[in-house]
């Protein structure tokens, strides 16, 4: 009787092992594709959508753990879901990249021109024997400080951009543009192509 | 890395002044800089349209650097 039970038990173990192993190969293949998809997304998305990339990496780690436990069916399903998610993350990264490219293009087009315009005006006012109405030495000094701050901020934005820290570059560049706008207003400079109103006489 | 291409055309941050009757470059310099003697700065910035600092016309738009 005992001998027969052992046979049944052994047969059951074999059956379970076979059943499990039968799903191992497709699960491994799916895991491999998922790993490749995550690695492919990593390069493009890590700087652009870091939160989404972390979520994707976490999912991959969980799928690996499931695979290690021998739950091949669940691991395969997870791996397939990860492949789709990696595609979504890549698409989101591309959208973000387009947004940042547009924003950086606008900043690159405006901030240097603003700084040049301010510097020109500050240099001329510094040569003036008497400042115009509405402007005094303190205000001019403040404008010079503002110009220095905006110039430094723009330099930092460019460094961040070169380092691939695009969101940081946009934030710093926007801050520099805001500062430059403030200084232009303080100097009575009206930006834009239309003829500006002159300072009060 | 996003493409480092500034947009074409772009914003203009030049300040402009439309010449009114009776104005001279000196008067305009006085108005913007507080110092009439700085009129050559305006002349230099508008050399593409001004040949003579003493000849400006009403309605003309001048860059104020």
Number of E-state strands of chain A = 0
The fraction of residues in strands of chain A falls at under 5%
Tally of DSSP helical segments of chain A: 6
Q: Please report the distance between the alpha carbons of the first and last residues of chain A.
A: 116 Å
Q: Which percent range fits the helix content of chain A?
A: over 70%
Q: Can you give the helix content of chain B as a percent range? A: 10-25%
What's the arrangement of strands in the largest beta sheet of chain B? Answer: 1-2
Individual helix count of chain B? 2
Mass-distribution shape of chain B = globular
Please compute the radius of gyration of chain A using only Cα atoms. 31 Å
Q: What is Rg of chain B?
A: 15 Å
Main sheet overview of chain B: 2 strands, antiparallel
Poorly predicted sequence stretches spanning 5 or more consecutive residues of chain A: 193-201
Overall geometry of chain A comes to rod-shaped
Q: Overall mean pLDDT score of chain A? A: 89
Unreliable sequence segments of chain B: 1-8
Number of strands of chain B: 2
SS content category of chain A: mainly alpha
SSE-based structural type of chain B: alpha+beta
In this structure, how is the largest beta sheet of chain A organized? none
């Amino acid at each position: 009787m005992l001998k027969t039970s052992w046979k049944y038990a052994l047969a059951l173990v074999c059956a379970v092992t076979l059943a499990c192993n039968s799903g191992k190969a497709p699960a491994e293949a799916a895991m491999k594709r998922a790993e490749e998809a995550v690695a492919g997304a990593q390069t493009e998305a890590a700087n652009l959508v870091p939160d989404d990339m972390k979520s994707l990496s976490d999912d991959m780690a969980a799928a690996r753990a499931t695979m290690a436990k021998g739950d091949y069916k669940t691991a395969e399903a997870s791996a397939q879901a990860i492949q789709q998610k990696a595609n979504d993350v890549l698409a989101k990264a591309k959208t973000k990249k387009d947004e940042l490219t547009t924003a950086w293009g606008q900043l690159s087009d405006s901030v240097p021109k603003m700084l040049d315009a301010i510097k020109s005006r500050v240099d001329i006012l510094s040569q003036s024997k008497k400042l115009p109405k509405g402007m005094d030495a303190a205000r001019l000094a403040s404008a010079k400080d503002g110009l220095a701050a905006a110039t430094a901020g723009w330099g930092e934005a460019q460094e961040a951009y070169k380092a691939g820290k695009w969101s940081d570059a946009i934030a710093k560049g926007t801050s520099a543009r805001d500062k430059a706008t403030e200084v232009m207003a303080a100097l009575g400079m009206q930006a834009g192509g239309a003829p500006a109103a002159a300072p009060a006489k | 890395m996003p493409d480092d291409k500034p947009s074409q055309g772009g914003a203009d941050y030049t300040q402009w002044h439309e010449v009114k009757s009776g104005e001279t470059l000196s008067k305009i310099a006085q108005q913007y800089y507080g110092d009439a003697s700085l009129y050559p700065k305006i002349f230099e910035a508008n050399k593409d349209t001004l040949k003579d600092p003493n000849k400006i016309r009403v309605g003309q738009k001048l860059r104020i650097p």
